[in-house]
Structures are given as structure tokens and as C-alpha cells.
Amino acid sequence: MKNLLILLLLACFSTSNWALEVRNLSFTQTEKNQKNQKFDQLLAEDPYFQIEAVTVTQLEDPMVIEDNSFTQFSPSLAYKSNAQAFAKDLGTWIMNLEKLIAFGTKVWEIVKKGRPVVNVNMAKPISVLPVTEDPRASFSQMSNWSAPKAARYRVEYKNGFGSKVISFDYTVYFQHGGQFNNKGQYLTGVTVKASNVAVSWGFQFDASSELETISNRGSLDDPNAGATINIDYKASSVFRDITSSESFHVTGSGEILKF
Question: What share of the chain in percent tops pLDDT 70?
Fold first, then answer.
């Protein structure tokens, strides 16, 4: 009896440390036109093909970074900044705001045809930097970057039977706190990567990320850079398309806000 109690306590502890938050995402299902309407209508009404819920769970174990462009790290260890790695190629100019300018790739795929997109050359991470005569040159003079920070989330689609038919993890990576002339808190290396993608028979799945906007969370003299990233999901079967999206916001002071 004592051993059973210990196992139950360990299970509860493990679960509480794995999932920090679970949220339901709103989604839209649109029917597709079918040729054989009578037969296909029967299959279309099958609960297997009907999505009943899309959930996002925040996980507590994001601190293993699989991408070679980042250093594997743990919260308990100190690491050398990777910000200088991005200085070689900041990507293209995307948008600017008074005192802030963003470089990188505006839209990038994270899941394509049910598989994570792992080609790091397809998308340059986002950097939100100070506006100077030459922001690219100024970037190499910036200092006080944090170690890479990460937050990991799991997205799950459940059908009418309550079974998971689509699931994947995505991890938000970024560095923050960079200063120019000992002022400001800027961002670099902001990106989203997918892993552990599982798509059941009869479904297709794609996901992409987009830099939606940048903002100044501080003052004009001491900016705190913010970047809002939108993630679009598109799942489909032969009978319907299911679309959904969510957004998150990262700041130069190291916050990750979901909405």
C-alpha cells in the first residue's frame, strides 16, 4: 500500500511538472464539395473525420534545443551568447517603427505536409534592433545578450471519438536584453521550430509562422523591443478544411505572452 501511494504521488508530481497550462483554440471547419454525395455524406458524418477540439498545452521541459544553431542548455547553467552568429546574416528588412527595425524572414513554414521543416536556411530568425545609420553594423557592437530562452507548447487535434488525430510540439526560441550604447532591451534569434509531428490517416497538416508586428514596450530613450508572432494551422481531410491560429508576444526584457 505504501509503495502504491508513493507511485501515485510521483505520477501526480510528474504530470504537474510536465503540463503547465492547457488552452482551447477556436477553429473553423468548412465542408468540401464531394462527387459521390450519398456515399461521401456517410463518411463525412463519421466522428473520426470531425474535429471536436484543438488544445494547446504549455510544457515545462523546453530547455533542450535541438537546432545546431543554438547551444543546448539548462536553466541552471550559464552559456555564451549566440547573438553574434546571427550578425553574419540578419536576413532581409521586414518592418520598422520609430527607434526599432526588424530583420529576418517575415513568413516561414514550421510544418509542411505533416513533417517539421528543419532546413534552417529557409528562414532567418527575427531580430528587432535599434534604428541607426547602419543597423547591421551596429548589431556587432551590441552587448549584454541573454542566453537563448525557450518555451515549448504541444498542439493536439481531437476528433469526435476523443482520439488525437493530429499533434505536434513547437518551441519558441529567442535571445533578449541586448543593449546598444548601454541602452535599450532588444531581441534577436526569434524563431519557431516544430517537432514530434504526428498526423493520423485521412488527415493532412501544415503550419506557418509570421511576424505580425513590432512594438516598443519601453520609452523612446530606453526602448524595450516587442515582437508579435502569429502561427497559422491548416488541417484537412477529404471532407473538410480546419483552420486555426494563435499568437504570442516576446519582449526585450524576456517575457513570453500568449493570446
Answer: 75
Which residues are within 8 A (CB) of 97 and not within 5 positions of it... i.e. 6 or more apart?
A: 214, 215, 216
SS (H, E, C) the chain: CHHHHHHHHHHHHHHHHHEEEEEEECEEEEECCCCCHHHHHHHHCCHHHCEEEEEEEEECCCCCCCCCCCCCCCCCCCCCCCHHHHHCCCCEEEEEECCEEEEECCEEEEEECCEECCCHHHCCCEEEEECCCCHHHHHCCCECCCCCEEEEEEEEEEECCCCEEEEEEEEEEEEEEEEECCEEEEEEEEEEEEEEEEECCCCEEEEEEEEEEEEECCCCCCCEEEEEEEEEEEEECCCEEEEEEEEEEEECCCCEEEC
Checking if the pLDDT of 226 tops 60, the result is yes
240: pLDDT confidence band, cut at 50, 70 and 90?
confident
Q: Taking residues 30-55, what's their average pLDDT? A: 71
Cα-trace Rg, the chain: 21
Q: Residue 215 has what pLDDT?
A: 96
Q: What is the pTM of this model?
A: 0.80
